[in-house]
Design a protein that fits this description.
503 residues; alpha/beta; 9-stranded mixed sheet; 5-stranded antiparallel sheet; binds adenosine monophosphate
Length: 503
């Protein structure tokens, strides 16, 4: 299949139409370790019932409901039921500490929060919001219910509109404040259709989902694309290296998608784990750069084509990918545009010819129309109707894209995006810190990790500063290393030069 050939092949435009066959008795979702298997028919019935209950509880179309759940059947049933009821599902990273969660919920203003009963951070933050908290319960039969949600009252479901916002995701802003990315039903369905057709997904496919469902990679890249094509999802609660191949084999998975860090972990342990040397139809890599040597080693060890893709929250995840054989997939490239247009511009905004390096811009039906209530971010994010990725790349004459750098100052730690502003803001809260600069440092496991340099005005050492960060930031954002400096490099306007710090 060639670039853009499949743009309009899938006629579905809302998540209410997502399931390939809502009457099918074939398995839609398998949940290890409890071993629950849910058919398409059971999933569709549950989703309709829960959607009616949401409306019965008084929620109105367009209201936001936060999902703070680990991977599992509960997440997917809740997500599909919310969008079926024309509500907006806002999945949120489970790793957030109370301060981070509060800042996202203050911006998202949910009408209800769905989180596990043991999640004390979610309970604490939700209590202050005075909205209901509904913990999910999973019955051994595979039924999902929500505690404290009245089940007797049922609302009348309306069909979602393709321009309704279905999904609200929060992404690290370069200014430190998370930015809300509203994605419509059509945005999501276009992306799902592009992914399903690009990898020729069929009901025979089974995907082992190891990426979090609160991010586009797990949710759209693996889960929704599989449900749209009638395949089966195997959804353990989290990635576990030692469980990966036993699950892959037991459930006869045909593919998985992951960040390079996970691929590298699987590769390093492959022989110890007795990993199979064939069996996968393909392996997908996305969200951070895959080193060509890792790609080659993965293909050799696991006997499957490794297809690197490029995704962004703002583009409903995938915007480019390498194709399946017999078309060539190229190491060091993220492949060609899948259902969107990609171009490269220079600093003045002029479109550049093939093989020239510049900022990657994208437009198409899966791209968001703007950040939520954020005119400043929107003014910077769009140029003539194209979305500016903040990534630097080169398109070759065949349309294959190579990413070569970043304009935006985010740290990409194994696919998790971290704003240096957010790290600096926390360090500056410490009474002994006068100045702080955060920047990416190379890391063998994560590609990049968080580094920081501080100028002190009181007594502190790197360990106590790290402990302070850990109190206020999700663990993955805590600097791996903190340097104490006598001064930090600054521009004429006094802005810290992070690139010089990193060097
Ligand atoms: P997110 O919104 O979390 O999906 O992050 C999107 C960003 O991840 C992109 O703008 C890129 O900077 C980065 N990214 C995604 N895929 C790749 C890839 N294959 N190689 C390098 N960076 C990537």
């Amino acid at each position: 299949m060639k670039e853009n050939e499949y743009l309009t092949m899938d006629p579905r435009t809302t998540l209410a139409q997502l399931l390939a066959d809502p009457e099918a008795s074939s398995p839609a979702i398998i949940c290890p370790p409890i071993g629950v298997v849910v058919s398409y028919k059971s999933l569709a019935t549950q989703v309709e019932r829960l959607a009616e209950q949401f409306l019965g509880a008084g929620l109105k179309a367009g209201e936001v409901v936060a999902i703070i759940l680990p991977n599992g059947l509960e997440f997917l049933v809740v997500f599909l039921a919310l969008t079926r009821a024309r509500l907006v599902a806002a999945p949120i990273n489970l790793a957030n500490k109370a301060i981070e969660l509060k800042s996202i919920l203050d911006a998202a203003r949910p009408s209800a929060v769905i989180a596990e009963s043991g999640n004390t951070v979610a309970a604490e933050v939700t209590a202050a919001l005075e909205v209901p908290l509904w913990p999910p319960l999973l019955e051994s039969s595979g039924g999902v219910t929500l505690a404290h949600l009245a089940t007797a009252a049922r609302g009348t479901l309306e069909t979602p509109k393709e321009d309704d916002v279905a999904l609200l995701m929060y992404t690290s802003g370069t200014t430190g404040q998370p930015k809300g990315v509203p994605l419509t039903h059509r945005n999501v369905l276009r992306s799902v259709g592009n992914i399903a057709s690009h990898y020729a997904l069929t009901p025979a496919d089974r995907s082992l989902v190891v990426m979090p469902l609160f991010h586009g990679h797990g949710l759209i890249g693996a889960a929704l694309s599989t449900l749209a094509s009638g395949g089966t999802l195997i959804v353990p609660p989290r990635f576990s290296a030692s469980d990966f191949w036993p699950l892959f084999r037991e459930h006869q998975a045909t593919w998985y998608s992951a960040v390079p860090t996970i691929h590298q972990i699987l590769l390093a342990r492959a022989d110890t784990d007795g990993a199979p040397d064939r069996g996968a139809r393909f392996i997908r890599s996305c969200s951070a750069a895959l080193a060509p040597a890792v790609l080659a080693n993965l293909e050799k060890r696991f006997g499957a084509p490794v297809l690197e893709a490029y995704g962004m929250t703002e583009t409903s995840h995938q915007l480019a990918s390498n194709p399946l054989p017999p078309l060539p997939h190229k190491a060091g490239s993220v492949g060609f545009a899948t259902g969107v247009e990609i171009a490269i511009i220079d600093q003045a905004g002029k479109h550049l010819p093939p093989n020239a390096s510049g900022e990657v811009i994208v437009r198409g039906p899966s791209v968001m129309t703007g950040y939520r209530a954020n005119p400043a971010a929107n003014a910077a994010a769009f140029i003539d109707g194209w979305f500016r990725s903040g990534d630097v790349g080169v398109l070759d004459s065949g349309g294959y894209l190579r990413l070569t750098g970043r304009i935006k100052e985010l740290i990409n730690r194994g696919g998790e995006k971290i704003s240096p502003d957010e790290i600096e803001a926390v360090l500056l809260e410490h009474p002994a810190v006068a100045e702080a600069g955060a920047f990416p440092v190379p890391d063998a496991k994560y590609g990049e990790d968080v580094g920081a340099a501080v100028v002190l005005k009181g007594a502190a050492d790197p360990d106590s500063l790290k402990a302070f960060c850990r109190e206020h930031l999700a663990d993955f954002k805590t600097p791996k290393r903190i340097w104490i400096a006598s001064a930090l490099p600054k521009s004429a306007t006094g802005k810290i030069r992070r690139s010089e710090l990193a060097a």
